[in-house]
Amino acid sequence: MLEQAAALAGAFRALGPVDHIGIAVPSLAEALPFWQATLGLPLAEIEEVADQKVRTAILPTGEARVELLEPTAEDSPIAVYMAKRGPGIHHVALRVQGLEAKLAELKAAGVRLIDEVPRLGAGGNRIAFLHPKATGGVLLELCEPVGHPG
Ligand code: CO
Questions:
Q1: Which tens digit of pLDDT belongs to each residue from 34-85?
Q2: Ligand 1 centroid, distance to 76 Cα (angstroms)
Q3: For FRET with 123, which of 30, 56, 69, 95 sits at 20 to 30 Å CA-CA?
């Protein structure tokens, strides 16, 4: 595989720009007036991601997006997060093309992954999380936009 050869040569796949910032909120209804009306960001969509037990509101800003995350169940990862650390920044997502290859590369480098296989995120994007213990405490998402397979 070309990817493996590149990884062995130390030529790691480049990551793209910040795709979005995930922000945990207790309620979209209470959070949205600030982001929409006060800051003036457009609301692109609200979507329920059953897999992660969240409802997300996507608000584009420049090249990136704000992703508000409201838990839909008490055992939602977002509810668990807020119980420990309160509302606020939950994760940062970097764009990548060739998500599987990037994950294989990171795993080979000994990086602890939450998702060794991509899953479906908001907007139908393919996503995978790195473990915060591997990143100095940041929940880092790698995100491959639909229509841009690597
Ligand atoms: Co995200």
A1: 999 999 999 999 999 888 899 999 999 999 999 999 999 999 999 999 999 9
A2: 14
A3: 30
Q: List, in order, residues 6 or more apart from 58 with CB less than 8 Å away.
A: 20, 43, 44, 45, 46, 47, 65, 66, 67, 122, 123
The distance of Cα 11 from the centroid of its chain, to the nearest Å, equals 24
| Whole-number pLDDT of residue 8 | 55
Quote the pLDDT of residue 102.
95
CA of 55 to the centre of ligand 1 (A): 11
State in Å: Cα 20 to ligand 1 middle: 6
